[in-house]
Specification:
This protein is of the alpha+beta class. Helices cover 20% and strands 29% of the residues. The protein has a 10-stranded mixed beta sheet, sandwiched between helices. A 5-stranded mixed beta sheet has the order 8-19-18-15-16, with no helix packed on it. The chain has a two-stranded parallel ribbon with strand order 7-13. Residues 68-308 form the Fumarylacetoacetase-like C-terminal domain.
C-alpha cells in the first residue's frame, strides 16, 4: 500500500486516516526525504496516536527549486475538446518551479489575465536520476518514480494562445497548486495507476472526471520520450496532462475556418470576444476542489481546495 506524506512548516508527517505522525528526519527537501525512506517507514509503523491532520498546515510536498515538466494534450477527452484529430505528437513544456504553491493556497490571477483556466493533473515525483537516453519499461517505473501528487496546471489562456507561450502562461506564482499528500508507492502499487480517477469541480459543479485509462502517453513511455533530451533528478516533478472539461474548447469548425483567413490580431480579438461569453473561466471568489484517487482507496492523493482571487 502507498504511504501518504504531508509537509508542514514543522517538517514531514506520515498520514494515517485522519491523524499524522511526525517523521524523525533531518530532511528539508523532497529529495532528502526520499533518501530517508527508513524514517518514513518507522513513522508509518509507529504506535503513536499522532496529531489530527485538520490541525496541520499543508505545504506543497514537492519542494522548490526543482524541475517542473508537463505533458501537453495527453488525454483523449482533452484532445477532442481541443479540436485535435488523428495522432497527436507527444509534447512537453516547462513550468517555473516558482509557480508551485500549497494545496489550499489562493490562486492569484494577474491583473492582465482575463481568461484563467484549470487543469487537474497527476504529478509523478522522481525518486532516482533519469539520465538522457534512458529507456523506461513498465516494470522499471518503481526504479525511477518514488510517488505521486495531485496538481493543478493553472493556465492564462489569453497569454498562452496569443503568444503561443506555454512557459509564461502557466508559470505565474500560485499556478501549480500541489498536494496535499505525496503518496510514496510500493512496487505493487504501480499496477493500479490506470484506476486513478481525476476529478475537479468549481463552486461544487463538476468540470473534469476521468481515469488514467483516458491517457494517451502513459508514464513509462512519457519518461522514455522525455529522456531523449531531459535529465530528471530526485524530487523533480512531471505533470502528466489533463482530461477534458477545461473551460477552453476549440471553436466550431466553420468559425475556425473563417478565423484562419483573418490577420492574427483580428483572429484573436474575435476568438476572445466569443470566449468572454463562456462562464466556465475562473473568476474572483471561485473555489476549486480537486481529488485523485482509486475507487478502493489504495492510492488517495487527498483533496485540494483552492480559492481564486484577483491580484491586489
Amino acid at each position: 500500500m502507498s504511504t501518504n506524506v504531508l509537509r508542514t512548516p514543522d517538517g514531514w508527517w506520515v498520514v494515517r486516516d485522519e491523524r499524522a505522525v511526525r517523521v524523525d528526519t533531518k530532511a528539508i527537501t523532497t529529495a532528502e526525504l526520499l533518501a530517508d525512506r527508513d524514517a518514513v517507514r518507522e513513522a508509518a509503523a509507529s504506535a503513536e496516536s499522532g496529531t489530527p491532520v485538520i490541525d496541520l498546515v499543508a505545504l506543497p510536498p514537492v519542494t522548490t527549486p526543482c524541475r517542473v515538466v508537463a505533458q501537453m494534450v495527453n488525454y483523449r477527452s482533452h484532445a477532442k475538446d481541443s479540436g485535435f484529430t488523428g495522432d497527436i505528437p507527444p509534447t512537453f513544456f516547462r513550468k517555473a518551479s516558482g509557480s508551485v504553491s500549497g494545496p489550499h493556497d489562493a490562486i492569484i490571477c494577474p491583473a492582465h489575465v482575463k481568461f484563467l483556466d484549470y487543469e487537474v493533473e497527476l504529478g509523478l515525483v522522481m525518486g532516482a536520476t533519469l539520465p538522457v537516453g534512458t529507456v523506461v519499461e513498465e516494470q522499471d517505473l518503481p526504479r525511477y518514480v518514488a510517488g505521486l501528487v495531485l496538481t493543478n496546471d493553472v493556465s492564462a489562456r489569453d497569454v498562452q494562445l496569443t503568444k503561443t507561450q506555454f512557459y509564461e502562461s502557466k508559470s505565474y506564482p500560485t499556478f501549480t497548486p500541489t498536494g496535499p499528500y505525496l503518496a510514496l508507492l510500493e512496487p505493487e502499487d504501480f499496477a493500479h495507476l490506470l484506476n486513478l480517477r481525476l476529478r475537479l469541480s468549481v463552486n461544487g459543479v463538476p468540470r473534469q472526471d476521468r481515469t488514467l485509462a483516458d491517457m494517451i502517453v502513459r508514464p513509462a513511455q512519457a519518461l522514455t520520450l522525455l529522456a531523449r533530451f531531459q535529465t530528471l533528478d530526485p524530487g523533480d516533478l512531471l505533470l502528466t496532462g489533463t482530461p477534458g472539461g477545461t473551460a477552453l474548447k476549440a471553436p466550431p469548425k466553420p468559425a475556425e475556418k473563417i478565423g484562419a483567413l483573418l490577420p492574427p490580431a483580428l483572429k484573436w480579438k474575435a476568438f476572445f470576444k466569443g470566449q468572454a461569453k463562456n462562464p466556465r473561466y475562473l473568476r474572483n471568489g471561485d473555489l476549486i476542489t480537486a481529488t485523485i484517487a482509486t475507487s478502493d482507496g489504495r492510492i488517495d492523493l487527498g483533496e485540494q481546495r483552492t480559492p481564486v482571487t484577483d491580484a491586489p
